[in-house]
Automatic annotation (TrEMBL):
Alphabetical UniProt keywords: Oxidoreductase
Superkingdom field: Bacteria
Organism encoding this protein: Pseudonocardia tropica
Protein name: Pyridoxamine 5'-phosphate oxidase family protein
All copies of domain Pyridoxamine 5'-phosphate oxidase N-terminal, residue ranges: 28-117
Regions crossing the membrane: none
Species lineage: Bacteria, Bacillati, Actinomycetota, Actinomycetes, Pseudonocardiales
N-terminal signal peptide: none
């Protein structure tokens, strides 16, 4: 299992691009899951980093969370709005695990309320998926080339330059 904090240390380039693009998109990202029939599903989510973990939050009761309960594999992609990718983009992939910790849930709810004013304080959380990051990649364009940085758990970042 690789937490967000460990990912930042192991993959500093990818995590920086991911965090920067995620913030620029208003905390919105695209989540890839597998539906019950095996076809892929892409859904908007608002992941958050809290206490060193990446949490895949979103509206409860939606199909994306049914997908993750059934098959914990995911891909998370920063919302790209520029076809030239001048600001870069990034994706991470891995699995999730459901965290059942009411005290953590309330700390998360308090932090969320302080950050954006969305009030989950005092509510009981259902499925609360934390990301176990297994890999990631980012793209940076500039100087007449594109750098694709790739990382897999247990390894180091590798850069492929494309002209």
């Amino acid at each position: 299992m690789t937490t967000w904090t460990e990912f930042v240390t192991a993959a500093p380039t990818i995590s920086e691009v991911f965090a920067r693009r995620h913030a620029a998109a208003g905390s919105l990202a695209l989540l890839g899951t597998l539906r019950a029939d095996g076809f892929p599903r892409v859904s908007p989510v608002e992941p958050r980093v809290f206490e060193g973990e990446l949490w895949l939050g979103g509206m409860p009761g939606t199909r994306k969370f049914d997908d993750l309960r059934r098959d914990p594999r995911f891909t998370l992609h920063t919302a790209t709005v520029d076809s030239r990718v001048t600001e870069g983009d990034a994706k991470i992939w891995g699995t999730v695990h459901d965290v059942r910790d009411p005290e953590l849930h309330q700390r998360f709810a308090e932090a969320l309320y302080e950050e954006i004013g969305f009030d989950l304080r005092g509510r009981e959380f259902g499925f609360f998926p934390a990301a176990d990051i297994l890999g990631g990649s980012s793209v940076r364009v500039g100087g007449g080339h594109m750098d694709v940085t790739v990382w897999r758990a247990g390894g180091t970042e590798e850069v492929v330059r494309k002209h």
